[in-house]
Amino acid sequence: MLPVGIDKISFYTANYYLDLRELACAQGTDPEKYYVGIGQEKMGMPAHDEDIVTMAANAALPLFKDEESKNISTLLFATESGIDQSKAAGVYVHRLLGLNENCRVVELKQACYSATAAVQMACALVARQPEKTVLVIASDVAKYELDSPGEATQGCGAVALLIKANPKILEIDPEVGNYTEDVMDFWRPNYRKTAIVDGKYSTKIYLKSLKKAWEHFSQSSDVRFSDISHFCYHLPFSRMAQKAHKHLSKVNKSSLEVEQTQAQIEDSLLYNKLIGNSYAAALFIGFTSLIENAEQSLAGQKIGFFSYGSGCVAEFFSGTVIEGYRQQLFTQQHKMMLDSRQALNYEEYLSLYHAPDPQSGERIEMPSDTTGGFRLAAIGDHKREYVER
Ligand code: CAA
Hints:
- With 389 residues, this protein is an alpha+beta fold.
- The protein has helices at 20-27, 31-38, 52-60, 89-96, 114-128, 199-220, 238-251, 258-263, 266-275, 282-293, 331-339, 346-353, and strands at 4-12, 16-19, 42-45, 72-78, 104-108, 133-142, 155-165, 170-180, 186-187, 196-197, 228-233, 302-309, 313-321, 342-343, 364-365, 374-380, 383-388.
- The chain has 12 helices and 17 strands.
- The strands form 4 sheets. A 9-stranded mixed sheet has the order 5-4-6-7-1-8-13-12-11, sandwiched between helices. Strands 3-2-14 form a 3-stranded mixed sheet. A 3-stranded antiparallel sheet has the order 15-16-17, covered by helices on one side.
- Strand 9 (186-187) and strand 10 (196-197) form a beta hairpin.
- The termini are far apart.
């Protein structure tokens, strides 16, 4: 069987952020609760002319510099902050990116897990037709109630991956471990803009799912815990991954020192600390953070991935980093994007939090604000109008 996996990967986040010190100050909370307790520093906030569609198109744009977009046979769009109950957000992205008319497009949902489902489905499609390329995009805006425990874990981001045969970044192993259980830890009924969350319970069920998915993975794969050099976890906040990795190390009776265990995940957390939760995109932005920030080459090394989507579905899978992967990366571009973002004060954050929401078909022109390549120009007659900036 031909190797299949990630050939290119790029991410995007909004050009505004709120520093969690600013949030803590407005709330009268100790900032260390956020910086240390949950391990987060900043959270990305979309401008009014940005949403999951514009972020997705912006994330995917660099992938097409030398890629013939006509080879994309399928666009799988993973999100849990969808903008329409019927139309897939990927159809707008298909136009904005100029993909060919014979490319199929579909949206997938299962909380933060859906991007992993999309990647696995993409691998299966490519294994069947190795000359094809599948574009997977995950894009989300994480939004909680103001003054709720989840507020400091908001964020936004999109990640785009090209899945190909003979990939140049990561060969994904076919063996996986899955776990599904019908639970109410985090959900968002159709009539709500913000998620409802049973926060403490959600962290417990995350850890339980990790153990269960790992056990299933161990039954189907020859890859042992000690074969894996680095781990990427779903990242609602970076401290969650630290707890998860400690938990998995304990389950596997790992003999590594604390510092060695930390080093296995540290680089994967860097971007998330600056962006916040990006739901479906978070795991793969974490992987991008790892491969773009690890000083030593990861070529030939085994990476373990834990994907978790509340509700809940979880998956553990693995992959091997390919020799020469660094030539495929957009490291400088990503770092410049993060460095050039603008800080918001608390009042500005509140005004972005209350995004326009025309429910009666009235027309609203969005102020031109984003620095990305695409923007949501207006909503009118219940239609969203996207343009190149
Ligand atoms: N200095 C240093 N640390 C401090 C501190 C201070 N001044 N004050 C508090 N802390 C520590 C606490 O001791 C705690 O550490 P431990 O976890 O090690 O006990 C940590 O900071 C957090 O404090 P609290 O437990 O008091 O925080 P909270 O209850 O207000 O909120 C949360 C925590 C419930 C996880 C909340 O952030 C939340 O609801 N988040 C959204 C849900 C979520 O992300 N769940 C994760 C699993 S579900 C998932 O992964 C899917 C998804 O994407 C949502």
